[in-house]
Design a protein that fits this description.
This protein is an all-alpha fold. It has nine helices and no strands. Helix content is 78%, strand content 0%. α2 runs antiparallel to α3 and α3 runs antiparallel to α4. The radius of gyration is 23 Å and the shape is elongated. It starts with a helix and ends with a helix.
C-alpha cells in the first residue's frame, strides 16, 4: 500500500511538473525544435520527419498554453515557413493563417499572410484563394512593408500566368520600350 501511494505520488508529481512548465522553458524547447527542423537536409528521411513533427508538437504546445505570449505569433510563423520548406504546403497554410487571424497586429502577421498567398498561388495553384489572400494583404498591410506590397501587387497582376506567359509579357514590354526609346 505504501509503495502504491509513493508510486502514485511520484507519477502525479511528474505529471504536474510537466503540465506546469514555465513559458520560458517551453519557448526554448519550441525554438530548439524549430532550429533542428529548419536545419534538416530536406531529403525526407525519417530523421527529418521526426524533427518536423517534434517542432510542430513543441510550437503548438507552447502557443496553445501561452496564446498571449509575444513569442507565439513568431513561432507559428517560423513553423509555417519550416513546413513550407519541407513541402507541407497545406499544413504551412494552417499555421500561417493562425498568425494573421489570431495576431493581426503582430510583426509576423503581414509576412504570414503574404507567404500564405504565395503558397496558394505558386505551390497549390489555387488562384482564387491566392487572389483573396493577396487582396487581403493589400487591404490590411500595404503600409507595413513596401517591398512585400510591391511583390503582392506583382503577384496579383500575374496570378495564374505560366512562366512562359510571364517571359513573353516581359519580352513584349522590352520590345515596346526599345521601340519608343529615342534613337
Amino acid at each position: 500500500m505504501k509503495h502504491t501511494f509513493l508510486f502514485l505520488f511520484g507519477v502525479l508529481t511528474v505529471w504536474w511538473a510537466a503540465c506546469t512548465s514555465s513559458p520560458e522553458r517551453l519557448k526554448q524547447k519550441a525554438e530548439e525544435a524549430l532550429r533542428q527542423a529548419e536545419a534538416a537536409d530536406l531529403n525526407n528521411t525519417p530523421g527529418d520527419s521526426v524533427k518536423l513533427i517534434e517542432a510542430q508538437r513543441q510550437v503548438l504546445t507552447f502557443t496553445e498554453q501561452f496564446k498571449d505570449d509575444p513569442a507565439a505569433p513568431e513561432l507559428l510563423y517560423r513553423l509555417g515557413m519550416t513546413l513550407q520548406m519541407h513541402r507541407k504546403s497545406q499544413q504551412a497554410i494552417e499555421q500561417l493563417r493562425k498568425v494573421h487571424t489570431l495576431y493581426p497586429t503582430s510583426p509576423s502577421a503581414h509576412r504570414a499572410l503574404f507567404l500564405e498567398a504565395f503558397i496558394l498561388a505558386n505551390e497549390l495553384n489555387d488562384t482564387a484563394s491566392a487572389r483573396k489572400a493577396y487582396t487581403l494583404y493589400l487591404d490590411n498591410y500595404s503600409q507595413w512593408d513596401e517591398k512585400l506590397t510591391e511583390d503582392a501587387r506583382f503577384e496579383l497582376k500575374h496570378l495564374g500566368k505560366s512562366p512562359d506567359e510571364l517571359l513573353q509579357e516581359i519580352l513584349d514590354t522590352m520590345m515596346q520600350d526599345s521601340a519608343q526609346a529615342p534613337s
